[in-house]
Amino acid sequence: MSNQQKVAVVTGASQGIGAEVVKAFRARGYRVVATARSIRPSGDDGVLAVAGDIGDPATAQRVIDQGVARFGRIDTLVNNAGIFIAKPFTSYTAEDYAAVINVNLNGFFHVTQRAIAEMQKVSGGHIVNITTSLVDHAVSGVPSVLASLTKGGLNSATKSLAIEYAKTGIRVNAVSPGIIKTPMHAEETHAALASLHPVGRMGEVRDIVDAILYLEAANFVTGEILHVDGGQSAGH
C-alpha cells in the first residue's frame, strides 16, 4: 500500500457512531486504525483493529505505533470513545468518576498527544473530538455533571489545541451531538428523547458522521465546536 494514502485513527470504533465513522473514512479511500476495548480483527486490509482500554497510555501507544508500522503515517484522529453515566450528583461513586475520567479525558490525552507527534512529521493533520450539547444546555431530567466535567473539558481543549497548532497545519475541531439514535437508547425512550430537541426528533448516526466528514474537508475551519443537536444548544 502507498504511504501517500491518508490514515485515520478512530476510537470507540466497535459499534454505533465509531463503527460508522470507520466505514465512512474507508469509503473515501482512507486507511483506518480502529480501536475499542472489545473490537474484533477486520477482514478489510485497509482497517487495522487494535483492542484495548484507550484510557491506558500503553493502549494509546500501541494504537499509534501499530498504525504507523502498518500504514506509515497518521493524518486524522477522531476521539469518539466516551461513556455517559446519568445519576444525581450525590449518587455518583468513586468508581463512576474514575471510569468517566479514564475514557473521556485520559483516553483523549494519551492518544491525542501521540497522534499529534506523528502529524507533525507530515506537517499536517486533523483531530475531531466528540463532545455533547449537554455541556452548553443542561437538561433538568438528564443529570450529567460528569459528562459536562469531561466533555466540557474537551471543548476547551479543542480551542486551546487549535490555537497552539494553528501554524503547523494541524487543525482541531469538535462535534457536539444532541441525543443520537443508537443501541444505548431503548426504543421505548425515543419519543421522550426526541422531545428534548427543538426539531422534534433524535439525531441519526449519519448526522454525526456527516459533520465529521464536513470538518475533515473544511481546511479553513479550526477551533470549531460544531453542534449537531437539532437546535438543543440554541434554546427551547
How does the SSE layout of this entry go?
Layout: E1 7-11, H1 16-27, E2 31-36, E3 47-51, H2 57-71, E4 76-79, H3 94-121, E5 125-130, H4 145-164, E6 170-177, H5 190-194, H6 205-217, E7 225-228
Parallel strand pairs: 1-2, 1-4, 2-3, 4-5, 5-6, 6-7
Helix pairs in contact: 1-6, 2-3, 3-4
Provide a descriptive summary of the structure in words:
Strands 3-2-1-4-5-6-7 form a seven-stranded parallel β-sheet, with helices on both faces. It contains six helices and seven strands; from the N terminus they run E-H-E-E-H-E-H-E-H-E-H-H-E. It is α/β, with parallel strands linked by helices. It has helices at 16-27, 57-71, 94-121, 145-164, 190-194, 205-217; strands at residues 7-11, 31-36, 47-51, 76-79, 125-130, 170-177, 225-228. The N and C termini lie far apart (50 Å).
Task: Please name the defining characteristics of this protein.
236 residues, alpha/beta, 7 strands, 39% helix
The dominant shape is globular
Total helices: the number is 6
The structure class reads alpha/beta
* Major sheet: arrangement of strands: 3-2-1-4-5-6-7
CATH superfamily: NAD(P)-binding Rossmann-like Domain
CATH class: Alpha Beta
